[in-house]
Design goal:
Helices cover about 40% and strands about 15% of the residues. It has 16 helices and 19 strands. Strand 14, helix 9 and strand 15 form a beta-alpha-beta unit. With about 500 residues, the protein is an alpha/beta fold. The chain has 2 domains: about 220 residues, Rossmann fold (3-Layer(aba) Sandwich); about 250 residues, UDP-N-acetylmuramoyl-L-alanine:D-glutamate ligase. The longest helix is centred in the first third of the chain and has 19 residues. Strands 8-1-10-19-18-17-16-15-14-11-12-13 form a 12-stranded mixed β-sheet, sandwiched between helices. The protein has a 7-stranded parallel β-sheet with strand order 4-3-2-5-6-7-9, with helices on one face. In the C-terminal section; belongs to the NnrD/CARKD family. Belongs to the NnrD/CARKD family. Its EC number is 4.2.1.136, 5.1.99.6. Keywords: ATP-binding, Isomerase, Lyase, Metal-binding, Multifunctional enzyme, NAD, NADP, Nucleotide-binding, Potassium. It catalyses: (6S)-NADHX + ADP = AMP + phosphate + NADH + H(+); (6S)-NADPHX + ADP = AMP + phosphate + NADPH + H(+); (6R)-NADPHX = (6S)-NADPHX; (6R)-NADHX = (6S)-NADHX.
């Protein structure tokens, strides 16, 4: 079995270092040979992406990432390309120093970077300044260089990771290179797929450098990239009772739209029945716009009880509010012991009255809600989204969807998936309400909380990408409903 099977697996920086040590110690592949393989893979990637490129500038730092850059420069120069190297320092050591000597012996042009220098012109810039070991902001000299690279308008190929991006977390403590393409070596680093990485990495390619599958034995991935999934076809004799009954609870004064979108998303995702418990003033609008929803005007917990008894899964929070009405319904819903999905004010109320769930539950916070649930601030959550998602899942005993660029789905047992779909147009009102309905619908149809969250996040994000083909700006949550239905049935939109 080839190492390519691991390309959906995500690893921490320390895990990749351990794989590197195994390749050297157990397989007898020298560090310099691995560096040469990385340079060869990077040049091949560059030539595929920019086949007309004839002039390169390679920016090299003092570490092994810089060594990859020096060897790439040597290979490109030997292939007849015009190549210049801009280096931060000549203080390379070990294999990186050997790589620098290889470049210098080839009589290539080398410039020492200083802050008042101009950058050489090129068809492509190669970022080999810092690799996966950097977990701080680049120093002032390197930051100025990175800013100049970003301002140049010249496309950038990043080796292993864009310089300045934390390859473990996806956080940038300072300035970072904005690459059009990133080629990652040996294994995919988890931080390239979430948070601020979305604005830095461009298109990601992972090259295992021809290493055999045995290298990965006994090294479980830290996380995985989400697969495109949907439910199988229904039995030909199916009836609505086979597909579950979602009860959506919310829609305080002025927020009928939120609970309607939640309920409609549950229907479009295949729930057999969807009831809505909401303010009485919302009934006319809901019945007029979407008569398939069974809407009930609820004044308090006593009127909610019969609806809870009939429900398979609860979707709690869209437009719920945090006043007396919303709190009473929230408390009654949680005390019912029904499987549920919590979003919006359902999460804000949970932050005020924390509890650990003993029945299947999915929490879908954005970073601000996650911060309140963890009693932290937003930057603390975003600095390490992986740790934040896992902490939430363990603290509350629930599957957690930490929304944002590169949404994370975390299980209390430590499993974690990363969603690579979605787009900035989805940063608009109502998108979270839809996701709540989708996940609740999948749970009602028999999925576990973990599978419902994974499938639901993927369907929701992919539907958003299809809807955004007409443009991201101005994208509405309701634009996702048509592609959501198609994708849920395994039909790819044209």
């Amino acid at each position: 079995m080839h190492a390519d099977r691991h390309l959906r697996d995500l690893y921490t920086v320390e895990q990749v270092r351990a794989l590197d040590r195994r390749a050297i110690g157990d397989l007898g592949i020298s560090g310099f040979e691995l560096m040469n393989r990385a340079a060869t893979a990077a040049l091949a990637c560059l030539c595929r992406q920019w086949p007309q490129a004839r002039r390169l500038v390679v920016f090299c730092g003092p570490g092994n990432n810089g060594g990859d850059g020096y060897l790439l420069a040597s290979l490109a120069y030997g292939a007849g390309m015009g190549v210049e190297v801009v280096e931060l320092t000549d203080a390379a050591s070990g294999d990186a120093a050997h790589a620098r000597d290889t470049w210098q012996r080839g009589a290539g042009v080398t410039h020492r970077w200083h802050q008042d220098a101009s950058l050489p012109q090129a068809d492509v810039y190669v970022d080999a300044l810092y690799g996966t070991g950097l977990n701080r902001a680049p120093d002032a000299v390197a930051s100025t260089l990175i800013e100049r690279i970003n301002a140049s308008g010249i496309p950038v190929l990043a080796l292993d990771v864009p310089s300045g991006l934390n390859a473990d977390t996806g956080h940038c403590p300072g300035v970072a290179t904005r690459a059009q393409v990133t080629v990652s070596f040996i294994a995919a680093k988890r931080g390239l797929y979430t948070g601020q990485a979305a604005t830095k990495v461009g298109t990601i390619f992972v090259d295992p450098l021809g290493l055999p599958d045995i290298l990965w034995q006994g090294m479980p991935a830290d996380a995985s990239l989400l697969d495109a999934m949907h439910l199988g076809p229904r039995a030909r004799d199916a009836h609505k009772g086979d597909s579950g009954h979602v009860l959506a609870i919310g829609g305080d004064h002025g927020t009928a739209g939120a609970i309607r979108m939640c309920g409609e998303a549950a229907l479009r995702s295949g729930a057999g029945l969807v009831s809505v418990a909401t303010r009485e003033e919302n009934l006319f609008a809901l019945n007029s716009a979407r008569p398939e929803l069974m809407a009930y005007g609820i004044h308090g917990p006593q009127e909610l009880q019969p609806l809870l008894a009939r429900a398979t899964v609860l979707a709690v929070g869209p437009g719920l509010g945090q006043g007396a009405w919303g709190h009473a319904l929230w408390l009654t819903a949680l005390d019912s012991g029904k499987p549920l999905v919590l979003d919006a004010d359902g999460l804000n109320l949970l932050a005020r009255e924390q509890r650990r769930f003993t029945t299947p539950a999915v929490l879908t916070p954005h970073p601000g809600e996650a911060a309140r649930l963890l009693e932290k601030n937003n930057p603390e959550v975003q600095t390490d989204r992986f740790a934040s998602a896992r902490e939430l899942a363990q603290r509350y005993g629930a599957v957690v969807v930490l929304k944002g660029a590169g949404s994370l789905i975390a299980n209390p047992d430590g499993r974690l998936d990363v969603c690579t779909w979605g787009n900035p147009g989805m940063a608009s009102g109502g998108m979270g309400d839809l996701l709540t309905g989708v996940i609740a619908s999948l749970m009602a149809q028999g999925c576990s909380a973990w599978d419902a969250a994974r499938i639901g996040v993927g369907l929701h994000a992919r539907a958003g990408d299809i809807a955004a083909r007409k443009g991201e700006r101005g994208l509405l949550a309701s634009d996702l409903l048509e592609p959501l239905r198609a994708l849920g049935n395994g039909i790819e939109h044209d």
